[in-house]
């Protein structure tokens, strides 16, 4: 791909493509699926393609989805003219255009033919594949592209449905796309061996917030803000407001309300504000720079 004269955003997109598609293609067959939110045929073709690829993951096939409106530089560089478009990438080179294959049998036939011709690594390296795909998916999720992350995590979930890291990541990606009901399904009836794992617990916390967000009343939120402004010592109102702000992903606003409670009475309601803060930290991610900043803020209050 040419990178001459690109702005910083396009350069970043190219670098991401190289990391997430070109590098894995050195040993795997990477399918590049170009779609768009306004594409009606994509609404039926996409799920079909994902279903087929899930059956080929153990054979060394992976799928990466690109919205052409959000990845215009990639679509332009690969001369994507319409959607849906599916290219096969191996060792950094486009080796096939699978776009004409629209039925399940046609896609399988195309994949079988490619796998018979290319030295794709599979089988014994399945665990390494899961680790690589999981790392890729989490990088994509952290970048905010939950739909692409879902596509990757869905493939891994079919391979390792009992892996806590896979369960947690897949559920969080589903929540970020707004598919709360499917996340509930993934997190229901968990094996006892994984139910208490940190990755799963983080996803469960995120699910609780997503479920709460469905019931947040905007008018009530405004009334709560007014009540807190009028009665700044009303810790119960602040706590309720913080919970609603967490639910709608206003983490700064939620943290400010919880810190205000701690400033007023760090032991209020048996330390409920601190417990709520820790839940927020868990959902955002312990390694996130924002969490590190808020932890220092919390320590300054608790240990002064």
UniProtKB/TrEMBL annotation:
A Pfam family that the UniProt record links to this protein: TPR_20
UniProt GO cellular component terms: cytoplasm
GO MF terms, alphabetically ordered: protein-disulfide reductase activity
GO terms for biological process, alphabetical: response to stress
Top-level taxon of origin: Bacteria
Domain Thioredoxin, residue spans: 2-116
InterPro entries: Thioredoxin-like_sf (IPR036249), Thioredoxin_domain (IPR013766), TPR-like_helical_dom_sf (IPR011990)
Entry-linked PANTHER family: GEO12009P1 (PTHR45663:SF11)
Stated name of the protein: Thioredoxin domain protein
Organism: Zymomonas mobilis subsp. pomaceae (strain ATCC 29192 / DSM 22645 / JCM 10191 / CCUG 17912 / NBRC 13757 / NCIMB 11200 / NRRL B-4491 / Barker I)
